Amino acid sequence: MNLNSFLSLLLSSQAPWLPDAALQRWGLYVAWSVVLGTLTFQLATMFRLRLRGWLALAVASWSLWSAPASPTYWLGLAFQSPSLMSVALCVIWTASSLNIVPVRPFEARQKTRPSVTLACVGMILGWLLLGDMLALWPVSIYAWGFSTAALARALAFALWVFGCTRIGTQVFTLAFLLVLCLFVVTRLPSGNLWDALIDPWLWIVLQVNGLLGFFRRRHSRQI
What is the pTM of this model? Predict the structure, then answer.
């Protein structure tokens, strides 16, 4: 694909640019492999680090198996693909557990204003998409995710947040920018920007984490 064809696909408002079918299928298996491998690694805290790593690798490899015996086969049927942002957060979560990056994604004391801003925007986006699914809005919010305008505004927002972030706390904003760049190139997982940024499970985690953080702060003030 030459540059002119790429730009015409990216900027066209006539038809959405959808991912290649083979790439979409592989993206589904890789995404669930990363998510399930990360969950295994985080839940197996009773084992030594090396054994946790082998268990996570085994589950991730099993998830890549393209057959009904694979958990990805059934998770894909029930929930489709995780968002690119969920995959990025899982990578950050694992890297922080290995002390590769000094960030704990789900610990309130490590949160900064940019990360809180991104989390709040994710929760609001989830509620807007839920309302769109229930036909509560006069226009389709989900359909807007196929447009170039949505991508441009998301990129502008990411750059604004990145500019407001200190050097030591840019992990989440960098992940957000990388997700947008990967979406531009691959259009995974569905060709819709919102599917790349949020999914139901990530939306639930953001809300639960936000509520826990709120009650922790309230309890600490009372003490």
Answer: 0.85
pLDDT of 109 above 50: no
What CA–CA distance (Å, rounded) separates 199 from 179? 14
CA atoms of 49 and 111, how far apart (whole Å): 26
Domain boundaries, the chain: 15-104+111-222
Q: What's the mean pLDDT in 124-147? A: 93
Token code pair at residue 210: 């936000």
What burial class does residue 221 get, using C-beta atoms within 10 Å of its C-beta: 0-12 exposed, 13-18 middle, 19+ buried?
exposed
Query: Does residue 153 contact residue 194 with C-beta atoms inside 8 Å?
Result: no
Give the integer Cα–Cα distance in Å for 142 and 5. 25
Q: Which of 188, 196, 210 is nearest to 158 (CA)?
A: 196
State the Cα torsion 170-205-100-188 to the nearest 10°. Answer: -70
Which is nearest to 194 in space by CA: 153, 147, 161, 145?
Answer: 145
Those residues with Cβ within 8 angstroms of residue 122's Cβ, 6 or more apart along the chain or in another chain: 85, 197, 198, 202, 203, 206
Tell me how many degrees the CA angle 53-35-78 measures, rounded to the nearest 5.
140
Listed residue (163, 158, 160, 172) closest to 112, CA to CA: 172
H/E stretch holding 84: helix 84-97
Minimum mean pLDDT among 37-46, 91-100, 131-140: which range?
91-100
Are 218 and 53 spatial neighbours (Cβ–Cβ below 8 Å)?
A: no
Q: Is the peptide bond before 189 cis (omega within 30 degrees of 0)?
A: yes
